[in-house]
Each structure stands twice: as structure tokens, then as C-alpha cells.
Design brief:
The chain is α/β, with parallel strands linked by helices. The protein has one domain: 3-Layer(aba) Sandwich (Rossmann fold), CATH 3.40.50. The protein is 30% helix and 27% strand. The strands form 2 sheets. The protein has a 6-stranded mixed sheet with strand order 6-7-8-3-9-10, sandwiched between helices. The protein has a 4-stranded antiparallel sheet with strand order 2-1-4-5, covered by helices on one side. Helix 7 links the parallel strand 7 and strand 8.
């Protein structure tokens, strides 16, 4: 019974999550009591207008920001109770991040950019292996300036997955890309989710991308206003925008 309970417990769970930013006399409520669950291996797309709380939520789940109140549970432990050092270890050992802008070191090759993570991770894969997974093995010795936008984003994905994270958090990973290039990036994310079981949360303004997910969660005014499960997950190449 104990093992079955472990298997069904969410990997990530938030309860009553709030975030308030104070700007002079003005209190800005970025999150207003968010309850959320994601199980190991789920692929969740998060939709909603700018200012709806999506990025704030992702930053708190990823340990980049702290909530004002509420719980954020990862694998049975409340992130809110972690010290700064424990949060650093949580981000290093358990979470991979992919952002809209690639944040690659321009003076380093693709392989060297990925090695920045593998040199400090607990149980990393080789940089070459991570780059092969995202289809960039032949480009590993190229510098960012020699790569297209889609290739740079795939280097960023390789860097994120090289530490073998349980959680992959992506904030507008296709936001700066055209449809054809964005699909290549989504294929890389879907492969990582499928082959490595990383619980994957993807923020996007693009409603069509929701079709490739297990679930689509919609934010509005700091709350989750809709949460639906797809009966069938489309392949990235079936999506167009």
C-alpha cells in the first residue's frame, strides 16, 4: 500500500499559493491562491494573457522566487521551508530551465555551454549526449553566433536536460521563433518528456501548442481559471500557427 501511495502522489503540488509585490503604496497580487498538481512525467501547457501569473508561478515552482503564502510541495517537501542553500541545490539537482531568450555564453561552443551545467550537476549525461538528443551533434563545436535561433534554443534545452532533471520548466520557449523552427523545439521538448519522464511545464501565449500536452492549464488574474485534459496528444509536427 505504501508503494502505491507513493506512485499516485503528485510530484509537484501547490496549495493556496499567493504572491504579492509591493510597489510603493500599491500591492500587486500576482497569484491569488493557486492550487495545482502535476504527476511525474506529465506534460502541461500553461496559457493566459500577460500579467495573469504564469511566469510568477513557474518561478516559484522552480525555486527562483518565493511565494508570499501557501505551499509548494516537490516530492513531499515544501520548497517554502528551504534555506537559500537548499533552494540552490534544488534548482541544481532537480530542475531544468528553458527561457524565451537562450542565455548562452557567446564565447563558448554549444558543447561548452552545456558543460557549464554538467560540470556541477550530481549525475549528468555527457554534453555530447544531450546535444545528440536535440539533434545538434554535428553542431556541437559551433558558437552561438554560428547557430540559428532554433538551434540556439535547442542548445538551451540540451543544457537544461543534461542534468537529468525531474522537472523541466519552459517559459515561452518558442516565443522568438517562427512556426517551422518552433516545431523543431517542441519536438525536442516532447522527446525529453517521453524518453526521460521529466515533468514538463510549458508557458506559452500560443493556444495551438496546448494540443501536444497531456493537460492545458489556463491562468487569469493570478488564478487558474481552467484545467482540461486532452483526450489525445498531438505530435508537434501536427501543430501549426
Amino acid at each position: 500500500m505504501e508503494e502505491r501511495a507513493e506512485e499516485t502522489r503528485p510530484l509537484i503540488r501547490t496549495s493556496g499559493l499567493t504572491k504579492v509585490y509591493n510597489s510603493g503604496d500599491l500591492a500587486v497580487h500576482a497569484l491569488r491562491g493557486v492550487d495545482f498538481e502535476a504527476r511525474a512525467g506529465e506534460f502541461v501547457v500553461m496559457l493566459g494573457p500577460s500579467g495573469s501569473g504564469k511566469s510568477t508561478f513557474l518561478n516559484i515552482v522552480g525555486g527562483l522566487d518565493r511565494a508570499t503564502s501557501g505551499e509548494t510541495i516537490f516530492a513531499g517537501r515544501d520548497i517554502a521551508t528551504m534555506s537559500d542553500r537548499e533552494l540552490t541545490l534544488y534548482r541544481r539537482d532537480h530542475v531544468g530551465f528553458v527561457f524565451q531568450f537562450y542565455n548562452l555564453a557567446p564565447s563558448l561552443t554549444a558543447r561548452e555551454n552545456v558543460a557549464l551545467v554538467t560540470e556541477i550537476a550530481h549525475d549528468p549525461m555527457r554534453p555530447e549526449e544531450a546535444l545528440e538528443i536535440v539533434g545538434l551533434g554535428p553542431r556541437m563545436n559551433h558558437f552561438p553566433a554560428q547557430l540559428s535561433g532554433g538551434e540556439q534554443q535547442r542548445v538551451a534545452i540540451a543544457r537544461a536536460i543534461a542534468k537529468r532533471p525531474e522537472v523541466l520548466l519552459c517559459d515561452e520557449p518558442t516565443g522568438a521563433l517562427d512556426s517551422r523552427t518552433g516545431i523543431l523545439v517542441l519536438e525536442a521538448l516532447a522527446q525529453v518528456n517521453r524518453d526521460f519522464g521529466a515533468t514538463t511545464l510549458v508557458i506559452t501565449h500560443n493556444v495551438a501548442i496546448g494540443d501536444i500536452a497531456d493537460r492545458v492549464v489556463t491562468f487569469g488574474d493570478g488564478r487558474i481559471v481552467a484545467d482540461r485534459r486532452n483526450a489525445v496528444r498531438k505530435q508537434p509536427q501536427e501543430v501549426s500557427w
